[in-house]
């Protein structure tokens, strides 16, 4: 870049500038620091929330389902399960029966999703057995009409291990007095907790109990699958569906739970745009800084033009001057943002200790801390976007500087 770079750097670090110009320059740099740091921290926290949400919710959600539409499709389900299990991308296959139901205890009632599972195979398709906080999953098989509840659901109903709950199903039993909903007492033999809304919505029974409650055939509603890679599950199911018999359809986790994660991504994108506007305002403060600097350096520009500098050299000079200011603000903001993102959980704990209050009450929220996941791709995107805004902000003042007429500037000072 030659002498324009040297002069541009000298202007950026000169101590002989007008005090007001120096103040405006400092304010614009601080705006860049705050905007960049805020954007990095917020993106890291949202990444942490997304990862926490994914880990908790998908603990009980298989990677995919093979759903049987009709009795004919479910007739030979065991052979289908054996065939799917041989696929190299499938780690586990388990049958299930599922129905909406109403659980009640005392005066409390709660709508739940009642799922009949094979307790020996459930651990191959989900992490449900590892989420138990009381009781045993295999206790479901030791006697009929036993149930495992989410910890939040049990608290809402006021029951614990060994207590009875009444399940009412949307199936009717004919009696001499008319039709009545099918109802049965179930013994609570286990409690699970994942720290998500499933704790208040799910209940598990054995397949044998589910068949007796639902009064249907012995065939399950479908098969639950676990694949080698969560994010490759849709592609694996798309490949499997080509060899499935008629009446069997594949449903990936991205279809059953995808709307929630799409909402999280949309929130992240929206918040990023809002915070990037803060960086844009700070970046365009550089416009004011450079306009004032051009007015202050009119005689210097005239001298340089008189010595042979062309307009392009003057333009590069002030672009470099503005970009240096932007780089300083972005670099300081990136360092501050990365530091805060890496220590946000400790800062939240320190704030709780200072205020003597819980920021995230476990009785209200499913989380007890502030998760954060720093991704260098996000840092790079924030730094790149901020530098781009800073560069755009320098162009107009630099162009105005390149249009200064040397004779007129020397004559009128």
End-to-end CA span: 28 Å
Q: Report the C-alpha radius of gyration, rounded.
A: 32 Å
Tell me the total number of β-strands. Answer: 10
Query: How many separate domains?
Result: 2
Structural class: alpha+beta
Strand content: 15-25%
GO biological process, one term: lipoprotein localization to outer membrane
Main location: membrane
Membrane topology: Multi-pass membrane protein
Domain ABC3 transporter permease C-terminal: 274-405
Give an account of the 3D structure.
This protein is α+β, with helices and mostly antiparallel strands and 413 residues long. It has 2 domains: 3-56 and 260-412, no CATH class; 64-253, no CATH class. The protein is built from 16 helices and 10 strands. The protein has a 6-stranded mixed β-barrel with strand order 2-3-8-5-7-6. The chain starts with a helix and ends with a helix. The model has no long low-confidence stretch (mean pLDDT 80).
Give a short summary of the structure.
Its main location: membrane. With 413 residues, the chain is an alpha+beta fold.
List strands and helices in order, with pairings:
Layout (H helix, E strand, L loop, with lengths): L2 H11 L5 H39 L6 E5 L2 H4 L2 H9 L4 E16 L2 E10 L4 H4 L6 E4 L3 H4 L3 E5 H7 L6 E12 L2 E15 L9 E5 H8 L7 E6 L5 H9 L6 E5 H4 L1 H39 L1 H9 L4 H32 L1 H12 L20 H27 L3 H7 L1
């Amino acid at each position: 870049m030659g002498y324009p770079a040297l002069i541009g750097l000298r202007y950026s670090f000169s101590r002989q500038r007008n005090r007001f110009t120096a103040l405006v320059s400092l304010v614009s740099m601080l705006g860049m620091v705050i905007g960049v740091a805020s954007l990095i921290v917020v993106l890291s926290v949202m990444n942490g929330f997304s990862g926490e949400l994914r880990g908790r919710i998908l603990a009980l959600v298989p990677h995919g389902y093979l759903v049987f539409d009709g009795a004919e499709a479910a007739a030979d389900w065991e052979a289908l399960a054996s065939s799917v299990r041989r696929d190299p991308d499938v780690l586990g296959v388990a049958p299930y029966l599922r129905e909406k139901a109403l659980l009640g205890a005392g005066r409390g009632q709660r709508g739940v999703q009642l799922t009949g599972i094979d307790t020996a195979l459930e651990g191959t398709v989900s992490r449900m057995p590892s989420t138990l906080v009381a009781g045993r999953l295999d206790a479901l098989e030791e006697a009929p009409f036993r149930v495992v509840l989410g910890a939040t659901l049990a608290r809402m109903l006021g029951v614990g291990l060994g207590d009875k709950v009444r399940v009412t199903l949307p199936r009717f039993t004919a009696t001499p007095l008319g039709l009545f909903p099918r109802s049965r007492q179930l013994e609570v033999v286990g409690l699970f907790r994942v720290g998500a809304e499933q704790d208040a919505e799910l209940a598990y029974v054995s397949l044998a109990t589910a068949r007796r409650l639902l009064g249907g055939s012995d065939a399950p509603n479908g098969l639950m699958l676990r694949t080698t890679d969560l994010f490759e599950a849709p592609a694996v199911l798309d490949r499997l569906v080509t060899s499935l018999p008629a009446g069997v359809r594949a449903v990936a986790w991205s279809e059953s739970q995808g709307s929630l994660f799409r909402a999280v991504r949309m929130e992240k994108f929206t918040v990023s745009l809002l915070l990037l506007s803060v960086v844009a305002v700070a970046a365009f403060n550089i416009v004011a800084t450079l306009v004032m600097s051009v007015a202050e350096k009119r005689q210097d520009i005239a001298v340089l033009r008189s010595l042979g500098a062309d307009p392009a050299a003057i333009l590069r000079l002030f672009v470099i001057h503005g970009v240096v200011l932007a780089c300083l603000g972005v670099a300081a903001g990136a360092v501050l943002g990365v530091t805060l993102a890496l220590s946000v959980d400790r800062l939240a704990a320190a704030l709780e200790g200072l205020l003597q209050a819980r920021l995230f009450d476990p009785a209200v929220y499913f989380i007890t801390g502030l998760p954060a996941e720093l991704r260098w791709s996000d840092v790079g995107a924030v730094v790149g976007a901020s530098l781009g805004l800073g560069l755009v902000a320098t162009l107009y003042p630099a162009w105005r500087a390149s249009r200064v007429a040397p004779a007129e500037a020397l004559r009128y000072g």
